[in-house]
């Protein structure tokens, strides 16, 4: 009789063991952010209105019409005077940048942010199990990931990834790589390093579609430390709930809407096509279709389906308005890529967001500019420093990038966050009373100028500048 009982219990215990192993394995696959460090360049790299004017005047290929275009672009960009540029533009070497310029720009960021992050968390570089580096516009040999491994003497068996050409949405691609690693390996530390190298890509020609990038892109970067260690979940800042990637590279129009290229005179830059807004909208809509069921409550999805069905049935009747899904039913904070004022406005309109929702992205664009793939983390840091992020809050990150790509993810705040990041020295002055750009006050006369008055005025400015330097 006892033998029969054992024979019965054995498969039952085995099933419980398999169930426990499955649940235990799933728990070890969680993706947590322990901490992150946004990069703040030194003050001698700030692009003030006066310096930008001097730098533009160095470009002898620009004429009156290009000046008018630049003035309009800069004034409407949403960018202030506190943003940072690469060192080679301050030394007047943007026309003939060297490989060393780009590498030095990255090293300065690596040495500052990675060290601060690891020191604060108390993790040694030798404890890092995986390293993912994404910098789109520069490729070196050895890779930038290799430079970090060499600089910090990381382990020989570290899993290293070096991403280039992924554009402004690259940091979420890096997070996705870490997320997939965590599904196969337990008890890992992963370091994501995200930035952009502007030194070799500062455009010095007169093609309007390429000049525009100089008005938007600024120096920055972020280092993020992630883990799937269950024992550290109480120290974690954020927990990844889901991540969705959309890629429209198969569409020629989307693929070519933003691309690194040379102009007719062979000057390297980043080309932004007029089809960019259309491509971004298509990718954004397709991405939302996939992520919405993952982050929104069932009641909101049902409401949207019923409202859409009713509208379709009575679409010819008067007063039929557009049916919009309410993302605020499943999202507490919106972390939007600072691709430009038009990007922020477009997402705000599409999702029916308030100025409070858009404030972190607008202020980040004003203070730091478009720092490419790292911009999302500056937006998150703004929310953190403003004490907006409380335990249990859900944060939706939305990013766009060349290709054309739209990537998004949902984070859950694991504990109340208390700030103390890159914004701490200036957060009290944000939001400012006005975001008006000083370029209009200083250079507004260009809009009324003709060729003769333009040349005379520029000569006066140069003479006044020379007199000031004496």
TrEMBL record:
Q: Does the keyword Phosphoprotein belong to this entry?
A: no
Q: Which reaction does it catalyse?
A: a very-long-chain acyl-CoA + malonyl-CoA + H(+) = a very-long-chain 3-oxoacyl-CoA + CO2 + CoA
Domain Beta-ketoacyl-[acyl-carrier-protein] synthase III C-terminal per the UniProt entry, residue ranges: 331-412
CDD domains, per this entry?
CHS_like (cd00831)
- In what residue span(s) does the FAE domain sit? 26-312
Parts of the chain that traverse the membrane: 6-23, 160-182
Give EC number(s), comma-separated: 2.3.1.-
Task: Give GO cellular component annotations, separated by semicolons.
Answer: membrane
Q: Which Pfam families match?
A: ACP_syn_III_C, FAE1_CUT1_RppA
Q: In which pathway does it act?
A: Lipid metabolism; fatty acid biosynthesis
Alphabetical GO biological process terms: fatty acid biosynthetic process
Q: Which domain of life is it from?
A: Eukaryota
Keywords carried by this UniProt record: Acyltransferase, Membrane, Transferase, Transmembrane, Transmembrane helix
What protein family does this chain belong to?
Belongs to the thiolase-like superfamily. Chalcone/stilbene synthases family.
Name the UniProt record assigns to this protein? 3-ketoacyl-CoA synthase
Source species of the chain: Vitis vinifera
């Amino acid at each position: 009789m006892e033998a029969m009982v054992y024979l019965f219990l054995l498969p039952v215990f085995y099933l419980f063991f398999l169930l426990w192993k499955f649940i235990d394995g799933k728990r070890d696959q969680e993706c947590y952010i322990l901490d992150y460090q946004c990069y703040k360049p030194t003050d001698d790299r700030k692009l003030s209105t006066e310096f930008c004017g001097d730098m533009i005047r160095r470009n002898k290929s620009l004429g009156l019409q290009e000046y008018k275009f630049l003035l309009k672009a800069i004034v409407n960009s949403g960018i202030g005077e506190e943003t940072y540029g690469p060192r080679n533009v301050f030394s007047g070497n943007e026309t003939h940048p060297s490989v060393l310029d780009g590498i030095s720009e990255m090293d300065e960021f690596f040495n500052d942010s990675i060290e601060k992050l690891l020191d604060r968390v108390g993790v040694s570089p030798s404890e890092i199990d995986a390293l993912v580096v994404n910098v789109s516009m520069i490729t070196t040999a050895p890779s930038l990931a290799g430079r970090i491994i060499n600089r910090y003497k990381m382990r020989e068996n570290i899993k290293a990834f070096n991403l280039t050409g992924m554009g402004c949405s690259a940091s979420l691609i890096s997070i996705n790589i870490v997320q997939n690693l965590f599904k196969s390996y337990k008890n890992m530390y992963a370091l994501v390093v995200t930035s952009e190298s502007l030194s070799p890509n500062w455009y010095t020609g007169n093609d309007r579609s390429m000049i525009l990038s100089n008005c938007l892109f600024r120096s920055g970067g972020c280092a993020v430390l992630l883990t799937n260690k269950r024992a550290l979940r109480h120290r974690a800042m954020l927990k990844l709930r889901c991540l969705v990637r959309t890629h429209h590279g198969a569409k020629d129009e989307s693929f070519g809407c933003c691309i690194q290229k040379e102009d007719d005179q062979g000057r390297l830059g980043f080309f932004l096509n007029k089809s960019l807004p259309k491509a971004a909208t298509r990718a954004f809509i397709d991405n939302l279709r996939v992520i919405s069921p993952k982050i929104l409550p069932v009641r909101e999805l049902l409401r949207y389906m019923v409202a859409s069905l009713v509208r379709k049935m009575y679409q010819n009747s008067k007063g039929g308005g557009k049916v919009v899904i309410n993302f605020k039913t499943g999202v507490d904070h919106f972390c939007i890529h600072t691709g430009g004022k038009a990007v922020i406005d477009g997402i705000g309109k599409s999702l029916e967001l308030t100025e409070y929702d858009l404030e972190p992205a607008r202020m980040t664009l004003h203070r730091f500019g478009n720092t490419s793939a790292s911009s999302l983390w500056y937006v998150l840091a703004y929310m953190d420093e403003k004490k907006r992020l409380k335990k249990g809050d859900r944060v939706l990150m939305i990013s766009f990038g060349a290709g054309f790509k739209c990537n998004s993810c949902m984070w859950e705040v694991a504990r109340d966050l208390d700030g103390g990041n890159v914004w701490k020295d200036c957060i009290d002055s944000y939001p400012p009373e006005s975001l008006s750009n000083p370029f209009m006050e200083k250079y507004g006369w260009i809009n009324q100028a003709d060729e003769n008055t333009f040349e005379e005025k520029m000569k006066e400015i140069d003479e006044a500048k020379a007199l000031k330097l004496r």
